[in-house]
Amino acid sequence: MALIKFDETRCKKDGFCVQECPAALIKQTDENSVPVMVAQGDQSCLRCGHCVAVCPHDALHHENIPMESSPKIIKGLVLNEAQAAQYLRTRRSIRRFKNKPVDRKTVQSLIDAARYAPTGGNSQLVTWTVHTDAAQLKNMADLTIAYMKAVLASDAAKNMPPYFSRFVDAYEAGINTITHNAPCLVVASAPGDYANGMVDLSIALSYFELMAAASGLGTCWLGLIARALKFSEPLKDAVGLPESHTHFYSMVLGYPKFKYHRLPERKPATIFWK
Ligand SMILES: Cc1cc2nc3c(=O)[nH]c(=O)nc-3n(C[C@H](O)[C@H](O)[C@H](O)COP(=O)(O)O)c2cc1C
Ligand code: SF4
Asked: Average of pLDDT values for 92-97?
């Protein structure tokens, strides 16, 4: 069966799909003809759905991107510029959480939103490992601290930023500087042999956290766990990523304890206009 079918009764021959396809897989013999897919086009198709998305006439049917699961864009829900700018600036790293669990359905809905993040070649290889057991989270924080103490006791200590030893001291004084007593920890990961793995999972985590903020939740990227996870075998066992997934990053999730009232400033962008 053809990967793409063009509905001749609906097609207005405007050629939008021809121009839009990133792999140049759709062609028109002339401006009055209904488009067709190039020979063997199905082998190079990214399954990105741009052809389905760009057709204003619902004239293009892609076998893997059915119209039924490609809803129309609701104009009333489109953010305006001011809303988008404030929303992006409102996102904060959350380190103080309410003592309230995050249920599986909620985590699932955030991961569902992250599925729409761009991925290299539309490969969609990012996977998610989710921990919600308090004892396991505490164990992972303990193992991260054990790794950090080993680093501080080694020659590598001189290369560590000043906050590194401070975080260990504070943890030992009872402040959870590693997982912030969050009720949930997620690790996004991708196969080591996939070149865009780190980029894809970073974008996916960004989608995840922006969706979390819009849903009344808060997140914090966890560089210290991610770093320890590269070297600590006990921590690797505790986190339990898929075997071949050597690209990964961690984030905690929970309900923020505090509200924020101002938007702190950042450095001006450094731009080289060429
Ligand atoms: C790490 C990365 C690299 C990409 N490289 C290219 C590229 O070189 N050329 C291109 O046309 N698109 C590139 N893309 C875009 C993807 O092909 C695109 O995200 C994917 O097909 C899904 O389409 P969407 O972004 O419209 O959802 C890249 C995306 C990512 C995340
Ligand atoms: S799904 Fe993407 S790559 Fe495939 S034909 Fe449509 S636009 Fe081209």
From this structure: 98
| pLDDT score at 112 | 98
Q: What angle do CA 185, 188, 191 make, to 5 degrees?
A: 145
169 falls within a domain: yes
What is the best residue among 37, 45, 47, 62 to mutate for testing ligand 2's pocket, by most ligand atoms within 8 Å of CB? 45
Band of residue 1 on the pLDDT scale cut at 50, 70, 90: confident
Quote the ligand 1 centre to 118 CA distance (angstroms).
6
Q: Over the stretch 145-158, which tens digit does the pLDDT of each residue have?
A: 999 999 999 999 99
Q: What angle in degrees, to the nearest 10, is found between the helix axes of 223-231 and 134-152?
A: 70
Please tell me the total count of domains within the chain.
2
Using the 8-state DSSP alphabet, how is residue 79 labeled? P
**Ligand number nearest to the C-alpha of 16:** 2
Write down the pLDDT at residue 197: 98
102 and 222, same domain (yes or no)? yes
- In a shared domain, residues 89 and 121: yes
Contacts of 109 (CB under 8 A, 6+ apart): 211, 215
Please check whether residues 110 and 223 belong to one and the same domain.
yes
Share of the chain above pLDDT 70, in %: 100
Domain membership of residue 274 (yes or no) is no
Among 21, 54, 70, the mutation site with the greatest number of ligand 2 atoms within 8 A of its Cβ is 21
Give alpha helix (H) positions in 27-133: 41-44, 50-54, 81-90, 104-114
Pocket-forming residues, ligand 1, beta carbon under 6 Å? 22, 46, 48, 118-122, 196, 199-200, 203
Query: 213 and 89, same structural domain?
Result: yes
The alpha carbon of 120 and the centre of ligand 1 are apart by a number of angstroms equal to: 5
